Amino acid sequence: MKSTEDIVGRYVRVNGARTHYDELGDSGTPLVLIHTLYACSMEWTRIMPHLAAQGFHCVAPDLPGNSRSYPPNWTPLTSSREYGDFLSDFITAVFGDRKVVVAGTSIGGNLTIDLAVRHPDQLLAAVAMEGGVWTPTVMSLQPFMNPASLPSWPEWMERCAMESLGPNVDEEIRQELVWQHRFTGHRSGMPQTNVWTEHDLRDVAGPVDVPLLVLHGEADFYMPEEIVKLTQRTIPNCEVRKLDGIGHYPMVEDPEGISAIITEHVNKHVPGRA
Amino acid sequence: MSRFEDESFLTTWIEAVNADPAFTEATRWFDGSILLDDDGAQAWLKVYDGAVIDRKPFMPPFGYTFKISAPRWAWNELPTGTKFTDLLLGGKRRYSGPEDLTGTPNLVPGAFVIEGDTMSAYRIIQAIYLMTDHYSAAARSSERAA
User: Which residues form a coiled coil (chain A) (predicted)?
Assistant: First the structure.
């Protein structure tokens, strides 16, 4: 089995912007992994070896403006639609016309659903964790977009991440999560809070042409049960599964278990995988 | 009764806060006061040079730098393990029921509210979190002892 030390960093141009991604495996089913807000590709480090062992070619980008990826035109993106279109172009840049599996968490979960709704032709299957069709679940941080308006935002963001973990997470994993939120600046990370609160697919979502699995950590206070039910009502052919004891970061909290769930979902729906 | 009216609790809590080197570091260059409010019961804390150096059970005439208030149920949630982030940012508490999801989102704010000089408050947000951590621990300790 490959290890976390086999992961390599690569760059690709997407819409003119130098975009970084972590990669593990060079063959198998293409799998694009989308991180949470204010974070980076390293959130997928622990799960990638498990997924690669199940025959996935894992690619985890840093979203534009995060960590080692520049934003197109030096302007951070400000909506799910913009990020979704960027990811569609990223998939084409890395995999050409090949269809991919996509999995994401938090805004990555929202973007996974966005891709399933608006770019289904590029997808084999999708797994959205801690995301939904509409997520206005935290107060607006609109007044704080300029770094000068919110000193110590990084410390606040670290607490926002740490406190949303499930109850049984090892200290080393908790510390990794803290550091995974230290590579993105305020000007990209803060607008992503608005991408979360203003994400709204209610008017465009419906039954999707992609096998979509929605995972919901029971300990995640950012994702109320009502949002999960709304997502299921809006996309009636999606499958929903609750994750016992898991918080806002399933792939960090239980990499082996989440890898098994992704694998089971893809094997069930993608021809040639079973 | 509010814990802010319990002298024994306040002593235990503030001693724990002042013994925490992370609190000292976070407030090393803060010179201000914090008014805490629990359904009208208050604790005013003067913070300077990395420590709480004075406290009063009311706001002095010259006011406060910033105020943190919440209904008693929210203060009581902290020792049960509910996270301060959950109570501050709103989260699932913005929804009282499925009807809130049918139109404009329910804009009920978080249970904890920070008012006054919020720039100064957010500058020491780490210290605020540490104070809530120690509040929870002191409350649990006090309940075990009772």
Answer: none
DSSP state of A119: -
Q: Give the tokens for residue B92.
A: 């699932």
How many structural domains comprise chain A?
A: 1
What's residue B108's pLDDT? 55
User: Which tokens belong to B115?
Assistant: 């008012």
| Residue contact A136–B100, C-beta within 8 A | no
Across the A/B interface, how many CB contacts are shorter than 8 Å? Answer: 67
Q: Is A6 an interface residue toward B (CB < 8 Å)?
A: no
pLDDT tens digits for range A52-81:
999 999 999 999 999 999 999 999 999 999
CATH of domain B3-145: 3.30.1050.10
Q: In the predicted model, is pLDDT for residue A163 greater than 60?
A: yes
- A242 is a domain residue: yes
Does A274 map to a domain?
Answer: no
Residue B124 is predicted with a pLDDT of: 96
Chain B residues in contact with A149 (beta carbon < 8 A): 119
Closest-CA distance of chain B to residue A88, Å: 29
| Residue A148 contacts residue A154 (beta carbons within 8 Å) | no
Chain B residues with CB-CB distance to A164 below 8 A: 83, 85-86
CA end-to-end span of chain B = 14
Which helix (H) or strand (E) element contains residue A103? strand A100-105
Of A155, A156, A226, the CB nearest to B101: A226
Asked whether A74 and A68 are in contact (CB, 8 A), the reply is no
**Where does residue A173 rank: exposed (0-12), middle (13-18), buried (19+ CB within 10 A)?**
middle
Q: Which residues contact A152 (CB under 8 A, 6 or more apart)?
A: B122, B123, B124, B125, B126
> Is the CB of B122 less than 8 angstroms away from the CB of A222?
no
- pLDDT, position B91: 53
| 8-state DSSP, A67 | T
